[in-house]
Automatic annotation (TrEMBL):
The lineage of its organism: Eukaryota, Fungi, Dikarya, Basidiomycota, Agaricomycotina. One of its GO terms (biological process) is ubiquinone biosynthetic process. This is 4-hydroxybenzoate polyprenyl transferase. GO terms for molecular function: transferase activity, transferring alkyl or aryl (other than methyl) groups. The chain crosses the membrane at residues 21-42, 48-67, 79-100. The keyword Metal-binding does not apply.
Length: 109
């Protein structure tokens, strides 16, 4: 969140390593994560609630990432504090998929 502090105390952070490419690296990593998560869901036979959760989480994360100014610590903090919501959306998709799957197969909850 504060690259100047990293330089002062000698930490070799990923933000310093990536430099001006921090956003593209994070974007690529996020796209790969959501792509692999979707592929795993496909292989596991998940249905539309799971994929809706992945799509919603990906949209929120990527849109916020593209609006984040990595040279402003407050923007980085706000982005970091939003990430639990992304996880909650993904878990919601998993849970909704499991409930709908059980209902459609006739298994009692």
């Amino acid at each position: 969140m504060d690259k100047s502090d990293d330089v002062k105390i000698g930490i070799r952070s990923s933000a310093l390593l990536c430099g001006q490419y921090t956003i593209p690296v994070c974007f690529s990593t996020a796209v790969a994560f959501f792509g692999l998560l979707s592929y795993g869901g496909y292989l596991n036979g998940h249905s539309y609630p799971f994929f809706a959760g992945v799509l919603l989480a990906a949209g929120l994360l990527l849109s916020k990432l593209l609006r984040t100014d990595i040279d402003r610590p407050a923007d980085c903090r706000d982005f970091f504090l939003q990430t639990p919501l992304i996880g909650q959306i993904l878990v919601g998709g998993f849970v909704a998929d499991a409930i709908i799957g059980r209902i459609s197969s006739g298994i009692a909850l």
